[in-house]
Design goal:
The complex is a heterodimer of chains A (441) and B (483). Chain A folds into two domains: 48 residues; 288 residues, no CATH class. In chain A, helix 3 runs antiparallel to helix 4 and helix 12 crosses helix 15. Helix content of chain A is 45%, strand content 11%. Chain A is globular, with a radius of gyration of 28 Å. Chain A has 441 residues and is an alpha/beta fold. Chain B is mainly alpha-helical and 483 residues long. Chain B folds into two domains: 192 residues, no CATH class; 202 residues, no CATH class. Classes of the chains: A alpha/beta (441), B mainly alpha (483). The interface between A and B is large, with 96 and 102 residues.
Chain lengths: 441, 483
């Protein structure tokens, strides 16, 4: 295109606006030598072209055609326009994630940059808060404790509106889901015990802030007490381990320094108190305890911790691995403890249940909450626990097993539903329908 | 798609620049339009149809205003006589354009707000609510492109611009991706001649690359960390006083750097494509009065409101009382333009009220008489306090935050934890550098006027640094993207 004239009357418009005139004059006045201009433009273009070029050469650049695949699949459906649009959005989101996560620039830069910012600026990533003395905190845990009340109607409304456009809106209110499970269990004559598990900053805030001292009262989300009150009024008892853990925290840490979860000693203490609670409330129907049904054998485990993994630091640059002493539980025959589908107690749980039991969590096996509960209860315990997916995943896992004919609710007296308290602020509490029990015959 | 994203920087932008460079002159606007629609549809493909409809309405209105249907299509269109008589068809055409655009804006932006308020009001007087389950999704950038599109019809009607015969050229103007979703708001009269013909040069591209690099640095290295501090404070249920002030100060810097960075990047991208967009920020936090602030902040919006709302309302020509009323009304509507919530109305009301007070004092700021540094500090404090309403999610949260600022908050036991996440070296560094840039650094426009080798190297270094940070950051919001 040729140089532009400041015509007063040209087709397409007139330039009489002083700001536009000034902008054009400004741009025309740029003082830059040709070598400097070439350097600026070349630097810029090379920067934006080299990264995708390397991704192409490495074969790591995601294909954009996947964006269309889902949309084509649903285009003929009844609500074709909106369904296609939703699928396009889903595909676009997945493509964008794939492009970013698969790029060499991210792969190469994240570990050293993260190590540098953590060391010199105490800046972790979006998921981690560095604490005091090498402790790390999961941001969602901190947000739950310091955040607004999770039952606040405005908070609930904001969370409902905050889901992805192509997915069903999340269910942020924990009460209907818990009461729904209570009702479905009641139809089978089973009681429900809710077991919110406090998160690290609630019990050991001194590991994040110097304003607190070990052993202080547990910190609660502003809605927590109201939530407990409403549940108990609706006939769902709540087993709250926070006072026990807070008291013990005055003596020794109850959580792992670089992991979201509790220590083996905390698990054992909580299992013991839970066993006492179950004995007191349901002992008569649980049948006689057998103190020799299980015994324990010491073991050790060592890991870097899941929060340390979240930091994606270079190999060898992260916090040192932490070593813990476990008490693995074995049955009377010396075999490792196993969940017993015929048990009267079912523990539904998340990774707080699975830690020291599920090898995926890398903290050893045979010494988790269900194992310790069985040991202290002197009775078999059944367990359905899912590490990720929040409070919905556990119930969905139970529902899938029931649907597959694996009736894990048969013969149960009580279901203990353990979940991390952070889920009260962040989890999806959608109702999950459990398959109804087929009538005999 | 946001500018500060991996996808935009490494895929969309190289593609857009390559397509633009390779297309012949006659195809450049079509290419730009298609790229812009791809850019816009990336967030929600369905909204492309909405923008296309809005564009088509204004295009037809423009041709009707210019009487294009009467003569041969090849004949050049003439501007209308400014202030001259207008036919019934022309009055209808401009009315259809204005009402059409405002209807789109009203429905998509304010439907949910209206329903919620009606339900609240009905509940207050004991009547059943509307009980509608319909929730309208806000299309990205609708506030920007409807204003932009509307300015075309109004400018043509007023005789300030000549209508476009080419639908592609007009669609290119409305959808131009550098400024589509977060401004600056381009008036048709500002770019009309550039749409017809514009000049590409190495110098222009170099300055564009420098603008984009500095904008990216402002966004990623300053706005994002300040935003992280602000989010930690504003998302907390309860705060101690010092934490609340740090969070608010960080938000004040975040919103400035977020938005001015976007404007810098938009101007830079425009230059790479041969366009020169006007300045949108003029060091607003160096203003010594609220009147001065509004001459410097989001200039494309404030001048739009002045020319298309304040002056048609009578401006300051109908006596002091009407002037104050006009100022307050324009700022209230300006607040509402930013978002459908009472918080934005209050924010607009605060600014409108302060503008009216200053007008009553003969355009003297409320801190007039003090040394300039104190006037600037006082103005910054007022603007920053008003941001509480802009940032807080609801009116009760805004009031609660103000309470924390002045020590009137009840203080939840967990409030002490917030400070531990806020008062960290990275946060102090970000806020300090932001303050330094706000009050001591030259503006992008001035600094890039001369580009010796060391400035080129600085821009390149900042580009690399910010892209390195971008590759490692998860936190990357864009405040004005949602308006």
């Amino acid at each position: 295109m040729s140089g532009m004239e400041f015509g007063d009357r040209t087709e397409g418009g007139t330039i009489r606006d002083e700001r536009a005139r000034q902008a054009l004059r400004e741009v025309g006045d740029t003082a830059v030598s040709r070598p400097a201009a070439w350097a600026m433009v070349g630097w810029f273009l090379a920067t934006i072209v080299v990264v995708p070029a390397i991704d192409v050469v490495r074969g790591e650049l995601a294909s954009p055609w996947g964006v269309l695949a889902g949309a084509v699949r649903v285009a003929g459906e009844a609500d074709g326009f909106f369904a296609t649009n939703r699928e396009l959005q889903r595909g676009i989101d997945a493509f964008e994630d794939e492009v970013r996560e698969g790029s060499w620039v991210r792969e190469r830069l994240v570990p050293p940059v993260q190590a540098w910012t953590l060391r010199w600026l105490r800046l972790a990533n979006e998921r981690v808060h560095p604490g005091r003395g090498g402790w790390l905190h999961f941001r969602a845990d901190v947000d739950h404790v310091v955040g607004p009340g999770f039952l606040d109607p405005r908070v609930l409304e904001a969370r409902r509106a905050g889901g992805e456009a192509w997915e069903a809106p999340p269910s942020p209110d924990p009460l209907p889901a818990i009461l729904g499970l209570r009702d479905q269990l009641a139809e089978r004559g089973i009681s429900l015990l809710a077991m919110p598990t406090p998160v690290k900053p609630a019990i050991q805030p001194e590991t994040l802030s110097g304003r607190y001292r070990p052993g202080g009262p547990p910190l609660r989300n502003p809605s927590f007490d109201e939530w407990v009150k409403r549940l108990e009024a609706a006939g769902v008892p709540v087993f709250d381990s926070a006072p026990l853990l807070a008291g013990r925290a005055a003596v020794e840490p109850q959580y792992l320094a670089t992991d979201t979860h509790w220590t083996p000693e905390a698990v054992d203490a909580v299992a013991k108190e839970l066993a006492g609670h179950l004995e007191a409330a349901y002992g008569a129907v649980l049948g006689p305890a057998d103190p020799l049904a299980f015994y324990r054998r010491p073991a050790t485990a060592e890991s870097r911790g899941d929060i340390a993994e979240m930091l994606r630091l270079p190999a060898g640059a992260g916090p040192p691995a932490q070593s813990v002493e476990l008490q693995t539980v074995l049955d009377g025959r010396g075999d490792p403890w196993r969940p017993d589908p015929a048990a009267r107690v079912l523990l539904l749980g998340d990774s707080f249940t699975n830690i020291y039991s599920d090898d995926d969590l890398r903290w050893g096996t045979g010494a988790g909450l269900a194992e310790q509960l069985a040991f202290h209860l002197g009775r078999p315990v059944d367990r359905v626990a899912v590490n990720a997916g929040g409070p919905r995943a556990t119930r969905e896992a139970l529902a899938r097993r029931l649907a597959a004919g694996d009736d894990r609710l048969a013969a149960k007296t009580v279901v203990v539903w353990q979940f991390a308290t952070r889920e009260l602020s962040h989890g999806d509490w959608a109702r999950v329908a459990l398959p109804r029990r087929e009538p005999p015959g | 798609m946001v500018f500060s994203s991996h996808l935009f920087v490494y895929l969309f932008l190289p593609l857009a620049l390559a397509v633009y460079a390779l297309l012949p002159r006659r195809g450049k606007h079509l290419g730009l339009t298609l790229l812009s629609y791809l850019f816009y549809g990336w967030a929600n493909p369905a909204f492309v149809l909405l923008m296309l409809t809005s564009t088509a309405i204004d295009y037809v209105c423009g041709l009707t205003l210019a009487g294009a249907w009467r003569g041969p299509w090849s004949e050049p269109l003439e501007p209308l006589e400014p202030g001259g008589p207008r036919s019934r068809a022309q009055r209808w055409a401009v009315a259809v354009s204005v009402v059409g655009n405002l209807s789109f804006l009203g429905f998509f932006k304010y439907f949910n707000f209206a329903v919620d308020n009606m339900d609240t009001f009905a509940a207050a007087i004991g009547l059943p609510g509307l009980e509608t389950s319909l929730r309208v999704t806000l299309p990205l950038g609708i506030s920007f492109y409807t204003f932009q599109s509307m300015s075309y019809s109004i400018d043509v009607y007023r005789g300030r611009a000549v209508a476009l015969r080419s639908f592609v050229d007009f669609a290119c103007y409305v959808s131009l991706f550098p400024q589509l979703v977060a401004g600056p708001i381009l008036r048709f009269s500002e770019v009309a001649d550039q749409l017809r013909e514009r000049h590409h040069s190495l110098e222009k591209m170099a300055r564009g690359a420098a603008f984009f690099s500095l904008g990216m640095a402002k966004k990623v290295l300053l706005a994002n960390p300040c935003g992280r501090v602000a989010d930690l404070a504003f998302d907390a249920g309860s705060l101690v006083t010092a934490d609340a002030w740090l969070g608010l100060g960080a938000y004040s810097f975040q919103i400035y750097f977020d938005f001015s960075a976007y404007s810098d990047m938009a101007i830079g991208l425009g230059l790479l494509l041969g366009f020169a967009f006007p300045k949108n920020f003029d060091s607003p936090y160096r203003a010594d009065s609220i009147t001065d602030f509004w001459r410097r902040w989001h200039i494309s919006l404030s001048t739009w409101l002045r020319d298309y709302l304040y002056i048609p309302l009578g401006g300051n020509r109908r006596g002091p009382a009407r002037t104050y009323f006009n100022l307050a009304l324009v700022m209230l509507l300006g607040g509402l333009w930013h978002g459908a919530s009472w918080n934005f109305v209050i924010w607009g009301g605060i600014h409108g009220g302060l503008l009216a007070v200053e007008r009553a004092r003969g355009r003297e700021g409320v801190f007039a008489g003090l040394p300039r540094p104190l006037r600037v500090a006082g103005t910054f404090a007022l603007v920053t306090l008003a941001w509480v309403f802009f940032r807080a999610e609801s009116l009760p949260r805004a009031i609660g935050y103000l309470g924390s600022l002045f020590g009137a908050s009840a203080g939840h036991p967990a409030a002490g934890l917030v400070g531990a996440t806020l008062w960290q070296p990275w946060a102090m560094l970000a806020v300090s550098v932001a303050a330094l840039v706000v009050w001591a650094a030259p503006q992008t426009w001035d600094w890039t006027r001369r580009l010796p080798a060391w400035r080129v190297a600085t821009c390149g270094g900042l580009l690399w640094l910010s892209l390195a940070a971008l590759a490692t950051q998860e936190f990357n919001p864009f405040i004005y993207f949602i308006f």
